Amino acid sequence: MNVIRPEAAPGRPLAATQGLVDVDIHPRVRSLHDYDPYLSAEMRHRLHSYGIRPRHGFVKGTPYFKSQPLASRRDAWTPEGGTPASDPGFTATQHLDFHGVDVGVLNPLQPSGQGDMNNAFSTAMAHAVNEWQLDQWVAVDQRLRASVVVPYEDPEASAAEIRKRAGDARFCQVLLMSRTSHPLGNPKYWPIFEAAQEANLPIGIHAFGYSGWPMTNGGWPSFYIEEVSEHATSCQSLVNSMVIEGVFERFRRLKIVLIECGFGWLPSVAWRLDKLWPTLRDEVPHLKRAPSEQIREHIWVSTQPVEEPPRPEQLLDCMGWIGWDKILYASDYPHWDFDDPRHAIPSYIPEAQRAAIYGGNARRVYGF
User: Fold this and answer.
1) What CA–CA distances, in Å, run from 119 to 46, 61, 92, 173?
2) Helices 41-50 and 119-133: angle between axes, nearest 10 degrees
């Protein structure tokens, strides 16, 4: 349920008896100069002279209008006119304090340099974004945890950045985008999985990413609503790829958290793979476990968006199949489709399951 005009009165969900953990908050810099203290002179020159260069056909900006400026709630601009989620104090007042959030996971999106056409620049930016999160957010508010931003198109550099942050409790996951330049299960990316597993960090895969390919199988769509809808298909492709390439056979302790991708599609993907696997398994002898078993063991999902079918039992069936212990609450603050925690989880879901979704499940997967 999206709440563009949140309720005026503060409050947290009554069902959040295991705490309230928000796994999707998007901090943003006030200006690109915020990264300057963490970049070399060469990389500062590159950033301010050439900017971020994602691997898609638009030199500046994103391919679609994002519903509202910076895809954000109109009331999320700071009182001084700053960009949404650029002021930790205002973010705390408007969201963490207002809704009683115990732990918030930071997922910096662009401008972060992830997937940039220049790998060296992407690597430098990932380091800068990580230091900026620690200095400007986590040090200011102890409720916040950072994500390890990595230059995922350079897996070896990504692995080095993960190992640099390993053991630092201020980081709780590794952050990737869902649209990489190759299907995510490709062995090219395995150094990232190896380092994440070694560090005992889940990998959060957030929707979006412009890595050179349209989000559909038929080219670039016309509207933002199509782009948003295609988050599900981008994740179907990466789940297929990770299962079939054998990622979960090789990395048996790997945890994947799908963020802002929906989840109503996940059972049907597993069922289709299970249907095909007995017939075609000669092609993939490295797969020892049924695809559905791998998916249910290794994949967590987040709310926002929650599918809202007209018949509640359909959503209950879907969530039950995925696993009530595998679903995490996400607000997507400060974006236009922000989910107020008091309304995000339908009340027809049993109270014990809602409590787990609001906080218990996140505490277990992230170790909070």
Assistant:
1) 13, 20, 34, 21
2) 100
Residue segments in the chain with a per-residue pLDDT below the cut of 50: 1-3
Q: Is residue 322 left, alpha or beta, with left meaning phi > 0 and alpha meaning psi from -120 to 50?
A: alpha
pLDDT at residue 52 in the model:
87
Please report where in the chains the tokens 């298909």 appear, as a residue.
233
Contact 354, 7 (CB under 8 A): no
pTM, rounded to two decimals: 0.95
**What is d(CA 367, CA 78) in angstroms, rounded to the nearest whole number?**
32
pLDDT tens figures, 206-241: 998 877 888 888 888 889 899 888 889 999 999 999
Helices 155-165 + 190-199 axis angle, to 10: 10
Q: What is the pLDDT of residue 59?
A: 55
